[in-house]
Design a protein that fits this description.
This protein is an all-alpha fold. Helix content is about 65%, strand content about 0%. It has helices at about 15-30, 45-55, 60-75, 85-90, 115-135, 140-175, 180-194. The two termini are about 30 Å apart.
Length: about 190
């Protein structure tokens, strides 16, 4: 905060060094980097990011996890009637070998919206483009359009929270002298967020 004069209380020296590095990066680049170092590590964002990362560690794809969350949001918003049209517009393409008769350790998601494709399309075209991608295009009342846009904005916030957490983890590892750990965190970020 402005009245702290830059002092940070932290449980360990490594965490204090991490906070100092991140604060310095933010102050040095706030005008030119468009908020790239403005990390938000509040507990609710960290929890959401960790849940996504745990899902990926358990074998789910980021596209499926975001799709599940988006579909759950549509259900909660009393808009489940649009799930099928959006699944058709943004189908999740299964990855890995084709289905066979042999037993499998895990089954990939197939019947869910591809959350990554949905978010990418939304970034490029906005809510109008997302609704136009359905066949036939979805002509919705303004309140429903706004609610769907809010749900996609929430997916963007979840992706941003993953990015913030992995950047902070990478800097934490650098502050502790663990370059392999820092590299692994940044590699995970590039793979997930692209």
């Amino acid at each position: 905060s402005a009245d702290s004069h830059g002092y940070v209380h932290a449980p360990s020296l490594q965490q204090a060094a991490t906070a100092a590095i991140l604060r310095s990066a933010h102050l040095a680049n706030r005008a030119s980097a468009a908020g790239a170092f403005n990390l938000d590590l509040r507990s609710h964002r960290v929890k959401r990011a960790r849940r996504l990362l745990e899902g990926i560690a358990n074998g789910q794809s980021l596209a499926a996890l975001l799709g599940y969350r988006f579909e759950r949001g549509l259900h909660d918003a009393k808009l489940p009637m649009h799930i099928l049209e959006l699944r058709r517009a943004f189908p999740l393409m299964p990855s890995g070998p084709a289905a066979g008769d042999e037993a499998k350790e895990a089954i990939s998601a197939r019947n869910v919206i591809d959350g990554v494709r949905l978010v990418d399309h939304y970034r490029k075209t906005g809510i109008t483009g997302v609704l136009a991608a359905a066949s036939p295009p979805l002509a919705l009342p303004l309140a429903e359009r706004d609610r769907i846009a809010q749900l996609i904005d929430d997916l963007l916030d979840q992706l941003d929270s993953v990015s913030d957490l992995l950047v902070a983890e990478s800097v934490f590892q650098v502050a502790g002298g663990n370059m392999d750990g820092a590299g692994a965190a940044m590699q995970a970020l590039f793979v997930l967020i692209g």
